[in-house]
Amino acid sequence: WGVSLCLGLLPVLGWNCLHDRAACSVVRPLTKSNVTLLSASFFLIFLIMLHLYIEICKIVCRHAHQIALQQHFLTASHYVATKKGVSTLAIILGTFGASWLPFAIYCVVGDPDYPSVYTYATLLPATYNSMINPIIYAYRNQEIQRSMWVLFCGCFQAKVSFRSRSPSDV
């Protein structure tokens, strides 16, 4: 949060191109060097997240394997929960990359003379990424699915049976 605040305050702190239009980037009033710094920060953060999620997945799989050895078998519910948790992490990371990657690349290769609609077209998915994550988690959680079914389709009898799940199944 602190790093985000500092990066967001760069234009206010004087790191802007208001006095030199040639130094402007595709994201006005940021200078080209600032946008390059932001793009490099994105790539670094994305690589760190990718590494951490891979490590988390390794730990989860190792833990599931240890449970299987202790119980002499891996029950179907443990396997499904582990697989669903790993796939949820993959979806979250993939969504983050798909949302921010076009903007980060455009900031590096874009030209300030391009129409500003290109900047907005790549920035819009990036800003919606934080809004998409709760939807992904909600879609992956069967309790929330059941609540949404009752909320929106409560007038119909549900033919789908919902089983109770633990928080680790998300």
Give a summary of the structure in a few sentences:
It contains five helices and no strands.
Task: Please explain how this structure is put together.
The chain has 170 residues and is mainly α. It has a single domain (25-153), classed as Rhodopsin 7-helix transmembrane proteins (Rhopdopsin 7-helix transmembrane proteins, Up-down Bundle). Helices cover 70% and strands 0% of the residues. α2 (32-71) runs antiparallel to α3. It is elongated, with a radius of gyration of 22 Å. It starts with a helix and ends in a 17-residue tail after the last helix. One of its GO terms (molecular function) is G protein-coupled receptor activity. It is found in: Cell membrane. This is G-protein coupled receptor 6. Residues 1-137 form the G-protein coupled receptors family 1 profile domain.
